[in-house]
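Annex B. Sample input.
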Amino acid sequence: MISTWSEWKRYPRAGRGDNIEAPITPGLYEVRIASTGALHSFEAVDNVAQALAQLPVGSKSWFGRRETSSLPDLEYRTCATSSKSDAKAAAERMIGRRETYMNGAA
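Annex B, continued. Sample output.
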């Protein structure tokens, strides 16, 4: 079973003190570049909150700190499911719809 998508939220940056608000259940996440709406990441996972927290969102300096000036301003949304298999099925449907749309638009 698939629930509905959350609202778009700003992806936390180091130093801002923000937190990721996401379910600790299986589901989907989508991350986009806020200024353009371009897709950054999309995946079906076992634990949405953990996957978002581990998402590589920029380059690192030699000292291990993220260079905040080179990070794009990102937004994310989540969708909880009852199992990872439901999340994968929903992701495949979404990818199929996007491909159909892009083929029709081209």
